């Protein structure tokens, strides 16, 4: 018989609140951010030698942050319709902080443009003072090094227009997934959203984007139909498959290397029925649960998506008593279809081992974020990720070893291990191969994270070493760019021929290298006009 507990507030408690953060970290106040329940997983990075691409990997290449020549920035503050926040402003620390509070980014200024005219002014000031420009709408994918950069926050670009007939959403580059999904609620249409409602649509799709619906409709970058941006010369461009197919290919996964995106048009897909939610199991059953999910996903229809993993819950009152301080295994399910159609697909998982809680139910797209119920409050974390291809000894043995590695890493402070079943449209090239982030030929995406507190500082090797060792010989070496972490460049996501192609687009669009993406092309060789 199934024992059920209410897990509603279990996983929010994982995330350190103000007062438990590392010294120096602060919680930025971001008015207007939507609030959802929190539960979650984390992502992170694997190590690999970098290939060689010679665009700036950091902001400060053109001029040191100590440069006395900040006159244009001073003028910019006076002429902008929006606002320029400088180091002497009261809200400097909250303006510059990214979502991950363990990353201390120090740009020369933070700009809140009111519209495209402000973007032109920002670019002119950057050129005049010798600064570079980085765009960061919501701060979930920071690079860490913003010295010498003007950081642009696009919150004013908040347009959402749903064209039901053409199945296209026109979305401003400041719009979060939570806002777009709320607008889609009741329409019977879905977009290729990820698991977190606080992430921006632009940051997600421009960086590739793994979605609950990616097995069904592909990596989210593929859903970009048109991009409107302000280019390095301050001019507006509308990029489509007709106007500039090579730039569109690059923008579909190449992130913020080519311009300041103001608006995107993305595909919507008909999905009249959605079913899903979280199923919680005892940690002791993790090997069985993981093996069962792998067996189901080996020949599941692409409409079914399952994330699964292990979580160490804190011993605090907010966690239901039976689970306090315990480790749980869980599977998060999203199915495009009815409960009746999902039932036979999930039956082997539910029968494989006793279930602590089964929260699966029909839902509408506006409630998608509740499936994973990830944190929306900023937190201090370290992260690690790898794309898994296969296990020499079979799925059950390999995933079982990974579950044991999580236990081994627990004393060092690992908080969550999340696995996402890939395959389906993610492994297919797509009819037109029109996205640099078009395809990932791996079976699972593994992500692990550790929440940092003053008592628990970061030691990535102790936390993630056991997981990395358990996956030796089983990983692809490349991953979806939105899963890269601070310090990683696009050589961890794309093969050399794609990087060379991206470098060519970069040379054409931004020969001076004014735009710095959070995930640069990589250090080194190819011919460039950059001044680094
Ligand atoms: C809790 C959590 C859950 C996540 N879940 C998922 C998930 O399910 N699937 C997934 O694929 N990823 C996921 N991510 C990763 C996330 O999608 C990426 O980090 C994404 O880039 C974040 O976008 P952002 O705007 O919120 O972050 P930011 O750090 O603000 O932006 C990221 C980068 O995108 C580029 N960019 C964004 N907007 C523009 C623009 N207007 N013009 C030019 N460049 C721009 C820039 O290079 C920028 O540095 C998650 C991250 C977190 C923290």
TrEMBL record:
<dbReference type="InterPro" id="IPR036318">
    <property type="entry name" value="FAD-bd_PCMH-like_sf"/>
</dbReference>
<keyword id="KW-0560">Oxidoreductase</keyword>
<protein>
    <submittedName>
        <fullName>FAD-binding oxidoreductase</fullName>
    </submittedName>
</protein>
<keyword id="KW-0274">FAD</keyword>
<feature type="domain" description="FAD-binding PCMH-type">
    <location>
        <begin position="103"/>
        <end position="271"/>
    </location>
</feature>
<dbReference type="InterPro" id="IPR016166">
    <property type="entry name" value="FAD-bd_PCMH"/>
</dbReference>
<keyword id="KW-0285">Flavoprotein</keyword>
<dbReference type="Pfam" id="PF01565">
    <property type="entry name" value="FAD_binding_4"/>
</dbReference>
<dbReference type="InterPro" id="IPR006094">
    <property type="entry name" value="Oxid_FAD_bind_N"/>
</dbReference>
<dbReference type="InterPro" id="IPR050416">
    <property type="entry name" value="FAD-linked_Oxidoreductase"/>
</dbReference>
<comment type="similarity">
    <text>Belongs to the oxygen-dependent FAD-linked oxidoreductase family.</text>
</comment>
<dbReference type="InterPro" id="IPR016169">
    <property type="entry name" value="FAD-bd_PCMH_sub2"/>
</dbReference>
């Amino acid at each position: 018989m199934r024992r059920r507990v209410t897990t509603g507030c279990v996983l929010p408690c994982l995330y350190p609140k103000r007062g438990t953060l590392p010294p120096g970290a602060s919680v930025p106040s971001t008015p207007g951010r939507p609030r959802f329940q929190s539960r979650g997983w984390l992502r992170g990075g694997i190590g690999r030698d970098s290939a060689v691409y010679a665009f700036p990997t950091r902001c400060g290449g053109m001029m040191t942050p100590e440069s006395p020549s900040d006159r244009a920035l001073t003028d910019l503050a006076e002429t902008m319709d929006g606002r320029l926040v400088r180091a002497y402003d009261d809200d400097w620390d909250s303006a510059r902080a990214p979502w991950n509070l363990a990353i201390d980014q120090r740009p020369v200024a933070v700009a809140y443009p009111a519209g495209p005219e402000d973007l032109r002014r920002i670019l002119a000031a950057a050129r005049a003072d010798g600064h570079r420009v980085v765009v960061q709408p919501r701060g979930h994918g920071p690079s860490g090094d913003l010295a010498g950069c003007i950081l642009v926050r696009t919150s004013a670009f908040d347009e959402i227009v749903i064209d039901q007939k053409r199945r296209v959403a026109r979305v401003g580059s400041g719009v979060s997934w939570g806002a777009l999904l709320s607008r889609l609620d009741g329409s019977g249409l879905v977009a290729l959203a990820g698991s977190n409602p606080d992430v921006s649509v632009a940051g997600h799709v421009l960086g590739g984007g793994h979605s609950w619906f990616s097995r069904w409709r592909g990596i989210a970058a593929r859903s970009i139909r048109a991009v409107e941006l302000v280019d390095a010369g301050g001019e507006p461009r509308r990029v489509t498959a007709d106007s500039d197919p090579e730039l569109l290919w690059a923008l579909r996964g190449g992130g913020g290397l080519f311009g300041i995106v103001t608006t995107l048009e993305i595909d919507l897909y008909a999905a009249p029925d959605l079913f899903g939610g979280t199923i919680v199991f005892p940690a002791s059953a993790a090997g069985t649960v993981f093996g069962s999910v792998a067996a189901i996903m080996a020949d599941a229809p692409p409409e079914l998506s399952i994330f699964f993993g292990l979580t160490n819950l804190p011993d605090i009152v907010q966690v239901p008593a039976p689970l306090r301080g315990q480790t749980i295994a869980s599977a998060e399910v999203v199915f495009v279809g009815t409960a009746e159609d999902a039932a036979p697909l999930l039956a082997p998982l539910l029968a494989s081992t006793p279930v602590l809680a089964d929260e699966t139910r029909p839902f509408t797209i506006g409630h998608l974020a509740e499936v994973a119920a990830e944190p929306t409050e900023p937190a201090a974390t370290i992260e690690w990720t790898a794309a898994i291809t296969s296990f020499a000894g079979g799925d059950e043995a390999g995933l079982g070893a990974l579950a044991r590695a999580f236990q081994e890493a627990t004393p060092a402070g690992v908080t969550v291990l999340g696995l996402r079943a890939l395959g389906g449209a993610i492994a297919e090239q797509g009819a037109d191969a029109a996205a640099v982030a078009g395809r990932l030929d791996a079976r699972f995406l593994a992500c692990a994270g550790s929440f940092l507190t003053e008592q628990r500082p970061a030691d990535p090797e102790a936390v993630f070493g056991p997981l990395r060792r358990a996956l030796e010989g089983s990983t692809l070496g490349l991953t979806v760019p939105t899963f890269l972490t601070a310090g990683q460049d696009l050589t961890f996501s794309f093969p050399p021929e794609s990087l060379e192609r991206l470098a060519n687009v970069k040379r054409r669009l931004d020969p001076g290298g004014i735009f710095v993406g959070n995930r640069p092309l990589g250090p080194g060789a190819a011919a460039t006009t950059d001044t680094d």
